[in-house]
Protein 1
Amino acid sequence: MPFELPDKAGLQHLAREFDWDLSAHDAERLVACLAPFANGYAWLDTQPAGLPEPAYRQRAWTVPESTENPHNAWFVRTEIETAPSGPLRGKRVAVKDNIFVAGVPLSDGSALLENFIADYDATVVTRLLDAGADIVGKSNCEYFCLSGGSTTSSHGPVDNPRKPGYATAGSSTGSAALVAAGEVDMALGTDQGGSVRSPASWTGICGMKATRGVVPYAGGMVMESSIDYIGPMTARVADNAALLNVIAEARPEPFDARLGQALAGVRVGLLSEGYAHPLSDPLVDTAVRDAAAALQGLGAGLSEVSVPAHHDGLAIWGAIVSDGYWQALRLGGLGYNITGPYSTQLHDAMSSWQAELPQMPINAQVLILLGKHLERYRGRYYAQAKNLAERLREAYDAVLQHVDVLLLPTTVQRAGPNPQADDLDGIFAHAFNNTINTAQFNATGHPALSLPCAVREDLPVGMMLVGRYFDEALLYQVAHAFETAVDWQRA
C-alpha cells in the first residue's frame, strides 16, 4: 500500500502506545514536522525495486515426478544458461531452496511461499554461473530452515540415501541427500547452527562453514544476520575446496593450495568438551578418536585440549538466534542491515505468516512464540549473548594458539529414523539436538569443516575440524590427508 503519514488523531493513538498523553496542540505541531518526510516516501513508492538483473537469462524449471525424486531431495529441477567455460564447467550443482535463483520458485521449505518466484540471483549463484557450473535444481529444505532434522518441510521428509527411512539431518536436507546419492557433484547449503555440517555428518559427505564473511550471504533467506552462512557440500574434499574458491568473497590463499601436503608439524587438539555429552553415542566418540589416531599416524601432533565455555555456547547461540530470527520474521523475512539486495516481493509474500502459525511444525512454533515473548526484554538477552559470543571466540582462540586445529564429533549421534508426523517429541529432538557441537561456531565465526570418518552399524560418522579465522586451507589440508589415507566406509 502507498505510504501515508498519520494525522493528528493517529499520532495521539501512537503516543498512547508509549503511555504518552500527547495533547492535540502538540500532535498538530508534530504532524507539521513530519510533513517533509512524506515527499521522500512518496518518491520511494514511484521507484523500481532496484534489484540486479541476472547475467544469464535463459532459464526453465519443472517439478520432478516422484519417480525422478526417490529421496524427496529435489524441490524443483532447473535448466539455466551458464558460462561456456570456467573452473566448475561440467559440474552439476544443486542450490538449497532458501537461496535466490532468479525466475525459479523459492519456498524456504514452506507452503506459505509456494507461489513465490525469486526476483534476483544470490551472489553465490552468479558466481556459480560465471564459473560454468550447471545449476540443475533447487534442493528441498526444512520449514523456514528451522530444524536440524529432515521431516518438517511442507514438501515432505527427505530420506537418507545411506539408509532408507532414516533422517539426513538438516536443514540442508536435500543438498546433502543429492550429493550422497551421487545425483549432483556439488551443492550449496546454508548453516545457521550446523545446517551444512550436520547433514554432511549424517549422510557421509563434506560440508564447510567458512570463516564469518568469507562467503557472501546476499540472496540467502535471513534467519539472523550474524549467524547466517552459505557453504559448499560435496562428496570429496578437493571438490569442496574448489567450490569454496568460486563462491568466496576473499581468501588469503586458494583454499586448495595445501592439498597433498604432509601433516608433519600440524598440531591437532581433541576438544574434550565435544565428547561424552549426555546425548553422545559412544560409537561416535570412539570413531572420531580413532580418526584422530589416524591423523597422528600421518604425522600430526595430537593432544587433548579443553574449552569449558564450549558447553555454554548453545545458550549463547540460542539467545542470538531466537531474538534475531523473530526480528527478521517481523520484517517479512528480510532483516535489517543485510549486505545485498532486498526483495520487497518476498516481504509481501511473507506478510500472511501469522495465519500459518497453527500449521507450522512444533520447532517453528516454539521459536516464534519465544521470539514474541522476548519482546518484553527489549533485546537485553540478545545483547548479553552477543557480548558473550566474543568471549567464547576468545576462549577458542586461546587454545588455537597452542594447536592448529580442533577435532570433535560433528554430531554427537548418528542418523536415526525419520520421526512420523505425529511424533512431536521426535521432531523437536531432531530439530535441535544436532546443534550440540556445531552452533557455537556460528556464534563465534570460526571455520568448521565436517567430513566422514567411519561407518558404524551402516551409518556414517562425521568428524569436525575447527580452525583459526581464515585458515580454511589448513582444514582442507588435514581433511584431504585423512581422506586420502583412510577408507572411511571401512574404518
Protein 2
Amino acid sequence: DGTASLTYYLARREAQGRKEATRLREQHARPETVRDARGGIIRINPGSREIYLTFTADERFEGGRTVLETLKKNGIKASFFLTGNCLRNPQWKELVQEIIGQGHYLGPHGDRHLLYAPWEGDTEVSLVSADSLRNDIAANMAELEHAGVDLSDIRWFMPSYEHFNTETVRVSASVGLEVVHLTPGILTRADYTTPDMPSYRSSRELLKQLFDHEKEFGLQGAILLIHPGVEPSRSDRLYDNLDRIIRTLKRRGYVFKRMP
C-alpha cells in the first residue's frame, strides 16, 4: 500500500543520503555555507560573487515559460523547487521536462504544500508530525523521480511557503536533504502579494529594494527567490523583470549559479 511504498522509499533515500555524504567528504565537495538560527542555509559560498536564483511553485506556474526563456537567453542555470501538486499537474509537465533538459536544479518543495510551522507565536511548535513531514517529502521525491530526476542528485530542499523550524531541518537531514532558505534582507519574496494586501509590494519597489540592498550590503552567495506563479489579481509580475535583474547584477560583477 502507500505507507509501505513510502517506507521503502525513505529507507532507500536514507541509504543514498549516507552514500552521498561519504562521497562529498571524500571529495571535499561540500561548499561553504551560512545558516540561520534554525539551521537553514541562507548563503552558499559567501565569499564569492555568486548569486543562486531560485524559483518555487505549487499550483501556479504560469510564468515558468518566461523564466526559462530568460535564463536561456542569458546563459545561466538556476534552481527550481516544485511541489508534488505542481509536478502532478498535466499543464506543467512540458515545463518540468524543459527544466530538467536545460540542466537546472530541480528539487522538492513539499508534496501537498503543507504549512510545517506557525507563522506567528512559537514557530518551534510544529504543525505536522515528524512522520507526516517525512511522508510529505517522500511523496514529493517520488513525483520528482517519476518526472525523470535522478534522486541521487537531489540534496537541497526548500520547504513549502519558504517557512520551517528546527524540526523541519532535523527531519530533512534524516532523509539526506539540507534545508535552504532565502538570504535575509532581500524582499523579492514579496512578489506574491496582491494589491488588496496591506503588505503589497510592486515590482518597482522590489527592484529598487534589491538593487539598493546590493549596493549597501552586497549579495555574495545570496539565495534570491522569485515566484514564477502568482495570483491573477497581481498583473505586476516580478518574473517579467527577470532579465533586468540578471543584466543589472551581471554588470555589478556577479555570476549566477544553480545549487551545487
